[in-house]
Design brief:
386 residues, six-stranded mixed β-sheet, alpha+beta, single chain, 6 strands
Length: 386
């Protein structure tokens, strides 16, 4: 028998906090690297942090996050981000709701959707069939479908899909009446029935993800800076994404060293820190499937880019490789100032905050460039990107 479920208590969490968590995750990744944590455990650590936040279990303190042994000399308060507007609550009596990118539609429509779900679930109390509840409250069901169709983006469908995402993470608790009603709403709003005969809403969600999976190429730099173009192209070539994912990069150039070889050729060596997030997603929702951070060198003749030599400091020999990266391209002498500057950069909370913001900016610009609008990062509530 399908048990009546109490609707999830979706607390209103403003975009400022969501963005803080995204940036905090970036900082955790980088400082984990600097403390010898940058091994195969690095990715699982970052993913665990995001998944923990996704389940609304926001850490009470940094000590709680640091149970892995990573070091984070940074507080929430130090991330002084732009204030966002408080979201209005949807009222069906209003002709329209005016909101912009800084206002999260999940917070606008969420309370109203939850009220309507509670009405549908209220009767008939004696039935174990979700269809009976829908038929008894068909007008309420239809109003939600109609509201979704009246919006520029199917925000009601997005909200309901996210509820299934939450339930899918808590599958050990089972699927109740609420999830089966949401499944019916999602199928009606999306027009996607799937293979049919689903006993678990999570199985339909899995098929829906695959049917609407996002397939785009890795981030491509479109600016006018020739040096940045060389770096981004080299990253795409040497560190491509895996199937069904795409990479977004953040580049910070430490130095550009130039020398002339004995045969008169000009050699350029660019040293930069690279932060790569591998995203995957479907329809409107993105999440991080992998991440990497390292210092890299790009040595090349500007007249012949095919000669480019790519090095990056990773693994157990990271320090040795890093010292080699900091050497001039022809004479091989160590640029000690550069070596020290790289260490200082990686331990600077201000620098990490800046690179986190640039990562989000690069992601937003790339999504705009490939015409993917109204996308969200999978936090709770989801962070609207563009």
């Amino acid at each position: 028998m399908v048990e009546d479920r109490v609707s999830l208590d979706m607390e209103v969490i403003d975009l400022k906090k969501a963005l803080i968590v995204v940036l905090l995750g970036l900082v955790l990744l980088i400082f984990a690297d600097m403390n010898g944590f940058f091994t195969s455990n690095q990715t699982s650590f970052l993913k665990t942090y995001f998944e923990t936040y996704f389940q609304s279990q926001v850490p009470e303190s940094h000590e709680e996050v640091m149970s892995t042994g990573a070091d984070l000399p940074l507080s929430y308060e130090s991330l002084d981000l732009v204030e966002v507007q408080e979201a209005p609550i949807y009222d069906p009596m209003d002709d329209e709701i005016a909101f912009n990118k800084e206002i999260n539609p999940y917070e606008v429509y969420g309370p109203y959707i939850e009220e309507q779900l509670a009405i549908i679930m209220a009767q008939p109390m004696t039935s174990s069939n979700p269809s009976d509840y829908i038929r008894k409250n068909q007008s309420v069901f239809d109003q939600l479908v109609e509201l979704n169709g009246s919006l520029d983006k199917p925000e009601v469908l997005f909200y309901l899909l996210f509820q299934l995402e939450l339930s899918d993470l808590q599958v050990d608790q089972g699927y109740g009446l609420r999830e089966h009603i949401i499944l019916n709403l999602c199928q009606t709003m999306s027009g996607y029935e799937g293979q049919g005969g689903y006993l678990r809403p999570g199985d339909w969600l899995k098929d829906y993800r695959e049917a609407y999976r996002i397939h785009i190429d890795d981030y491509a730099y479109s600016g006018d800076d020739e040096t940045l173009k060389v770096i981004y192209d080299a990253e795409k070539k040497n560190n491509p994404s895996t199937s069904n994912t795409f990479n977004v990069y953040q580049i910070y150039i430490h130095d550009v060293m130039e020398e002339e070889s004995t045969d008169g050729q000009r050699l350029v060596k660019v040293v930069a820190d690279v932060l790569t997030f591998q995203f995957e997603g479907y329809d409107h929702l993105l999440w991080i499937s992998d991440a990497d951070q390292y210092t890299a060198a790009y040595t090349y003749n500007p007249e012949d880019l095919s000669s480019l030599v790519y090095d990056r400091a990773v693994g157990k020999d990271r320090e040795e490789i890093l010292r080699g990266i900091c050497k001039y391209p022809v004479t091989g002498s160590l640029n000690n100032d550069l070596y020290v500057a790289i260490q200082d950069y990686n331990y600077s909370s201000e620098a990490q905050r800046g690179r986190g913001e640039l990562m989000i900016e690069n992601l937003e610009n790339y999504l705009d460039g490939v015409k993917l609008e109204g996308m969200y990062i999978r936090t709770n509530p989801p962070l609207r990107l563009n």
